[in-house]
Every structure is written in C-alpha cells, then in structure tokens.
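#help-structures

NK: newbie question. if I give both the sequence and a SMILES, will the prediction place the ligand too? trying with 2-acetamido-2-deoxy-beta-D-glucopyranose
OV: yes, paste both and it writes out the complex. here, I ran yours:
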Amino acid sequence: MVVLPLRHHCYITALLSSTTLLLLLYFQNSVLVFTYGSYGFVSERSPCACHTCVADRGNSNWFSERYDPNVPLLLNSTNSVLNANVSRWWNELQSDAGNYAEVVDQVFSLFPDKEHYSDTGSDRCRTCAVVGNSGNLLGSNYGPLIDFHDFVIRINKGPSKGYEKDVGSKTTHRIVYPESAIDLDNSTHLVLLPFKILDIQWLISAFTTKNITQTYVQVPSTIKADKDKVMILHPEFIRYVYDNWAERHGRYPSTGFLTLIFALHICDEVNVFGFGATSGGKWHHYFDKTLSYENSVHGGTFENETIHRLLQENKILIHKGWT
Ligand SMILES: *[C@@H]1O[C@H](CO)[C@@H](O)[C@H](O)[C@H]1NC(C)=O
Ligand SMILES: *[C@@H]1O[C@H](CO)[C@@H](O)[C@H](O)[C@H]1NC(C)=O
Ligand SMILES: *[C@@H]1O[C@H](CO)[C@@H](O)[C@H](O)[C@H]1NC(C)=O
Ligand SMILES: *[C@@H]1O[C@H](CO)[C@@H](O)[C@H](O)[C@H]1NC(C)=O
Ligand SMILES: *[C@@H]1O[C@H](CO)[C@@H](O)[C@H](O)[C@H]1NC(C)=O
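OV: that's the protein plus ligand as structure tokens.
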C-alpha cells in the first residue's frame, strides 16, 4: 500500500471536494435552467452571439407579445399572395390599385427572388445602426460610431455626403418610396416601402421603360442603384407593424418606425441615431429645414412611446445627440 504523505492527502481531499463543489454548482445551474426552461422563460441556446439579442424573447413579455419572428419581411414570388385582411387594408391606403398579381410577376423577373436574412442563429452577431433624419445629428460626431456597425440603414433622402462627421459614410440599406427616392451607390440595398401597387410599378419602370414620372407628385423617372440589391418590404409586414407595434394609431406607420421594426427582424443588436427632436425641441431634418415630425397621418406620439419602451426593455439603444 502506498502511504501518501499527509500534505498530499490534504491536497487530494481539497481537490476532490472542490470538484464536488463544482459539480454541485453545475447541477444546481442545470436545475435552475431546467426549471426556468420548463416555464418557458429561458431558451437553452442564446438566439445570437451578441451580448444581448433582440430576438431573445425570454426577457420581456411586452416584447414577445408583439414580436413575430415568422412575419414575412420581404416580398418574393412564393410569399406574394396576400391574405384577405392585408389585401383589403393595403388597397384602402391607395386610390387607384393596379393589378397586383401582374405586377408581382413582372417584378421578380427583373429583381432577385430569394430569401434574405434567414441566417439568424446562435453564432451570428449582426449589429445595425438605424439612422433617422433628425437635426439632433448635427454636431454629434457620431459618424465613426455609425460606420462601425455591420448594417447602416438610412431612411428616405437623408444624405451622408457632406455630413460624414455626424452621420457616417456607409449605407448598406436605404428605405425609400418613389416620392423619397434618391440615387444610391452600388454597395447599398434599395429597400422599397410599397404604400401602393404603383410604387412597385414605379420600381419596375425606373429600371426599364422609365416612363412613370408621376404619382401624386412628380417622381424621378429613374435612379441609380444596383438592380441585384433591390428588395421590397412585404405589405403584410407593413400591416404587422401597424397592428402589433403602432397598435393602429394613425393611418399607417411612419417610414422611420417601419425601418426600426424591420431592423429588429434582421439584426441582433440595434442602435438608433437621428430619431426624435433636438434638445431644443426642434423637429427638422439635419439636411434641411423640413419638419420631420407628423402626428396626423402617423401615430407619432404613440410611435415615440413604443420606441422608448423598446429602450426600456433593452431591445435598442437610442443615441440622442447633443444639440
Ligand atoms: C382577418 O381579420 C379578422 C378580424 O380582424 C380576424 O378575425 C381574422 O382571423 C383575420 N384573418 C386572417 C386570415 O388573418
Ligand atoms: C420567400 O420568403 C419566404 C419567407 O417569407 C420564404 O419561406 C421562402 O423560401 C422565400 N422564397 C424564395 C423563392 O426565396
Ligand atoms: C461600385 O462603385 C465603385 C465606385 O463608384 C466602383 O469603383 C466599382 O467598380 C463598382 N462595383 C461594381 C461591382 O459595380
Ligand atoms: C409605360 O410603358 C409600358 C410599356 O411600354 C406601358 O405598358 C405603360 O402603360 C406605360 N406607362 C405609362 C404611365 O406611360
Ligand atoms: C417621446 O417619449 C419620451 C419618453 O416617454 C418623452 O420623454 C418625449 O418627450 C416624447 N417625445 C414626444 C415628441 O412626444
């Protein structure tokens, strides 16, 4: 028999008991996870690789009641048939509804018809900056911080040229409708927000015949953009944002609000810039004096409350600027 010197003996006992302790802790944690898990509070794997994940529905009831991970985001040829409710609502928003089925056929012979952003998973950490057009961006020096994100999503005409220091220079996505469209560079996805069928017809025309020059106002007959990066928001997504997030305030959601909710669905971490008023209470764009706040068509006050609730629930960060 080997007699261990006393010191060794103590060492081994200590080692064994600390192993036991670790095992105990390990089991205790498993039991905890198991218990929470069976109540549906914690999913076993984190939904993404970031520190906190937007899609983690375990940490906010308010959020999970509203967030539908299965809503169609972008229109494609297999999901283009609209359910009756969506179709009725969407048609009521427009005065002169064209032939939707025909337009959809045409659109996917021209633009990519594939599924995007289905790569959600425990090893993805996609950070996004949603950049609104508020005057509070002026003097913010947010440019480098904004450009640091994987996706930089801009809205309507908000330019970066000449404002790089405050708004950055990178644009991966720009959400527009015909009346707000501008030329894009070839690294930017044009994301059309179709408030009406004519908007999709305009998109087709802009890349082909260029003969649509008028909606309810004059619109550009064509724009520069990479045809292979064109995307169209799904009308059902617009309706979902209106129902679940704007809770039917206003007639339809604002572009900024739709863009923010879109980001919640394609990103793991969402940082918001250029939303809201300046600290002096002014609601103008950073690039002109146009008022950027409406409470009539859009439920502006309610949208603002929802955005602040998303902040409270740790789903987004809001960078307010200084001015
Ligand atoms: C359409 O709306 C009605 C009433 O809001 C609802 O009961 C019904 O389930 C909806 N149908 C679909 C297909 O969403
Ligand atoms: C269209 O999008 C749906 C999700 O809305 C997806 O399940 C389907 O695979 C997509 N179809 C094509 C052709 O990419
Ligand atoms: C994209 O634009 C840049 C600068 O205008 C140009 O140098 C580059 O060749 C373009 N790339 C493609 C794929 O068109
Ligand atoms: C544009 O041209 C297409 C094809 O030539 C034609 O079908 C369509 O009616 C024209 N639209 C307008 C607004 O002129
Ligand atoms: C938006 O909501 C925040 C938080 O409730 C509030 O402090 C702010 O005054 C609101 N802004 C407007 C314009 O309603």
